[in-house]
Write a structure and sequence with these properties.
The complex is a heterodimer. Helix content of chain A is 34%, strand content 9%. Chain A is α/β, with parallel strands linked by helices. Chain A has a seven-stranded mixed sheet, sandwiched between helices. Chain A has a three-stranded antiparallel sheet with strand order 10-12-11. In chain A, strands 8-9 form a two-stranded antiparallel ribbon. Chain B has a single domain (3-107), classed as OB fold (Dihydrolipoamide Acetyltransferase, E2P) (Beta Barrel). By secondary structure, chain B is an alpha+beta fold. Chain B has four helices and nine strands. Chain B has helices at residues 26-32, 79-82, 86-89, 114-124, and strands at 3-6, 11-16, 19-24, 35-39, 46-47, 52-58, 62-66, 71-76, 98-102. The chains are: A alpha/beta, B alpha+beta. At the A-B interface, helix 16 of A face loops of B.
């Protein structure tokens, strides 16, 4: 790591400092005049304001800007952004797959997009039916008994699952104290367990990158409420012993939460109910292709086993003989149900559910099955064609993502970070770095099923070229990367130690 | 004369007169990269050996620090709040995390001495 070193930008050599159509864009506050106004507002009538002593006496200081100034500002900023629409985005663990335009078109239909959550239930029967249809899809694809649709993100779904587990343990008389989390789990898992009042005990991984069964047996006790297992795990490997893990956990009176963030590798092929799973969230924004990573909200519906389904949170959609109803209260839910509470205002991320339903219905069951096959094939293609130049810590085949460590960079003076920065100059969003923590200097690549062989081949050639450059001793090339971005290497340490979070006119350059 | 011990989780503890000073090792700080934040335990906390007592955040990751011994936290390194970089510069001296009054000195028998720890780290690379 190069402490505190920031390379000056290579001068563009232009009069303006702009690089072609990449414009050096000032902040809105720096372009607009506080005195001016970009729109013609009528003078306010002289009426008493009723604010008394709270009336503001100083100007608010907002810049006056015209519509074209504002539109250009945001368009220019968006042109500096990198997105899945701009190119290959192999950010491991994040499933940056293409977002089909059909989903967007359907979600924008005015009959859906303009609905209000307070509309009378009789006027939103179609919307409730769509939520119900998606729930049926998710139950069918997982084999599970029920699904809580309201969680608004993956980690929110984890929270839902652990809250259901806690409620079920409490109903048995003792919430217990511990949630087991393997080392190869997603980082949000321990946080979710902790938020529910559990202490987290880690289970080490074997040298194969999978859960150590002997260690699991040792840690199981009547104080363990459940386990949170990511499968496929963050090493991109399927936990082969998952059935044995489920049996051991159940025998100890605990529940099995499976982190379903990597369900993209299993969809249409594995019914998780068959693995002994009690709860699993599904990231609609990953597996079902809705925009994420700054492009839109997520959604984390959580499927539940018969042992947990009675504890599902409110609200949920129920199909009656001739209508759909929204169950919002315990009284409505009935005596058999013991909802642990409510997780979100209104009814969940409806717009995300619509896109996910559009995706599922347009691909069909066979199409969804093909996505997982193609995702796994693409990852294995990367692994097979890169493992002679990069170093793979675990033997393949992998699932939906390919994991490498920094062994190939040993003694080159180049780090994983430097390598990632060089990829930016080549026109790629880099892979995930330094995660998972179980391998040294991790590079985690997830191509997803969206990419063609041609795209992968060009990427592979790029990575091979960079690896050759690193081995040839050209460390300076990597340390100086990125060269071609609007800003070059940022000082991450200073940014974290002394973050400047607010713009002020007196500190502006 | 203080005696220094090391854990497999890369903590060091320097013990003298029943009080231990705890920090993370040179190897650990190197692996973490630039440290940007350290969350320390509260004074007076009773901890068990192996409890997570502190969190160290670097530009790469947030990692838990496990107490190598049981006891009561009697002092924390206030300097780390303003200067977390001390952990990088002097991991095994000024970058210490907390002082603990040991409740069971026999727990030290489970830890490594410098020579064994160096060999342990050698094996990891």
């Amino acid at each position: 790591m190069i402490e505190g070193q920031v390379f000056p930008s290579v001068p563009a050599g232009t009069v303006t400092g702009n690089r072609g159509l990449v414009v050096e864009e000032p902040l809105l506050f720096e372009q607009g005049s506080v005195a001016g106004s970009g729109v013609d507002l009528p003078e306010p009538r002289d009426v008493p304001d009723g604010l008394g002593g709270f009336r503001r006496t100083t100007p608010i200081g907002l810049p006056g800007l015209s519509e074209p100034q504002v539109v250009r500002h945001y368009t220019r900023l968006s042109q500096k952004n990198y997105s899945i629409d701009a190119g290959f985005y192999p950010l491991g663990s994040c499933t940056m797959k293409y977002n089909p335009r059909l989903n967007e078109k359907l979600a924008r239909l005015s009959g859906l997009g303009d609905l209000h959550p307070f509309q009378p239930i009789s006027t939103v029967q179609g919307a409730l039916e769509m939520m119900h249809s998606l729930a049926v899809w998710l139950m069918e694809l997982t084999g599970m008994a029920g699904v809580a649709m309201s969680p608004a993100a993956g980690a929110h779904g984890e929270l839902c699952g652990i809250m259901a587990i806690r409620a079920a343990q409490e109903a048995k008389g003792n919430p217990r104290k511990i949630i087991l989390v393997p080392e190869s789990a997603h980082g949000t898992n321990p946080a979710s367990a902790s938020l529910c009042g559990y202490s987290v005990v880690a289970i080490p991984a074997t040298s194969e990158g999978r859960v150590d069964i002997a260690a699991l047996k040792e840690k199981l006790s009547d104080e363990v409420a459940g386990i949170m297992l990511t499968n496929p795990n963050t090493c991109g490997l399927f936990e082969r012993d998952v059935r044995e893990i489920a049996d051991l956990v159940h025998a100890a009176g605990a529940f099995f939460y499976m982190d379903g963030a990597n369900f993209n590798a299993l969809i249409g092929r594995v019914k998780v109910a068959d693995l002994g799973v009690d709860a699993m969230h599904i990231n609609l924004h990953k597996t079902f292709s809705t925009p994420h990573g700054g492009g839109g909200p997520g959604a984390g519906p959580t499927v539940l086993s018969p042992a947990l389904v009675a504890f599902a949170p409110l609200p949920f959609v129920r199909k009656t003989k001739d209508a759909f109803e929204l169950v919002e209260t315990r009284a409505q839910a009935g005596e058999a149900a013991h909802p642990f509470g409510r997780m979100k205002g209104f009814h969940g991320q409806f717009g995300v559910m619509l896109r996910a339903l559009a995706y599922a219905m347009s691909l069909g069951k066979d199409g969804l099955r093909q996505t997982s096959g193609d995702a796994v094939l693409n990852a294995n293609y990367l692994l097979a064609r890169l493992k002679d130049v990069l170093t793979a810590p675990f033997d393949g085949p992998c699932m939906h993502e390919a994991l490498f460590d920094d062994g190939f960079l040993k003694d080159t003076g180049v780090t994983t970070l430097d390598f990632a920065k060089a990829l930016i100059d080549e026109g790629y969003h880099p892979m995930t770095m330094y995660f998972p923590l179980v391998v040294h200097g991790a590079l985690l690549m997830e191509p997803t099923e969206s990419e063609s062989k041609q795209t992968l081949d060009v990427f592979i050639d790029t990575v091979r070229g960079l690896a050759a450059k690193a081995l040839a001793g050209d460390a300076d090339f990597f340390h100086a990367a990125p060269r071609l971005t609007p800003r070059r290497r940022l000082d991450e340490t200073l940014a974290a130690r002394k973050p400047v979070l607010r713009w002020r006119p007196d500190v502006a350059d | 004369m203080a005696k220094v011990y090391f854990s497999e989780d890369h903590e060091w503890i320097s013990v003298e007169g029943g009080v231990g000073i705890v920090g993370i090792t040179e190897y650990a700080q190197e692996q973490l990269g630039d440290v940007v934040f350290v969350e320390l335990p509260e004074l007076g906390t009773e901890v068990e050996k192996g409890d997570d007592v502190a969190v160290v955040e670097s530009v790469k990751a947030a990692s838990e620090v496990y107490s190598p011994v049981s006891g009561e936290i009697v002092e924390i390194n206030e300097d780390l709040a303003e200067a977390p970089g001390l952990v990088n510069q002097h991991a095994e001296a000024d970058g210490w995390f907390y002082k603990i009054v040991l409740s069971d000195e026999t727990e030290l028998d489970d830890l490594m001495n410098r020579k064994d720890y160096d060999a342990f780290v050698e094996d990891l690379d």
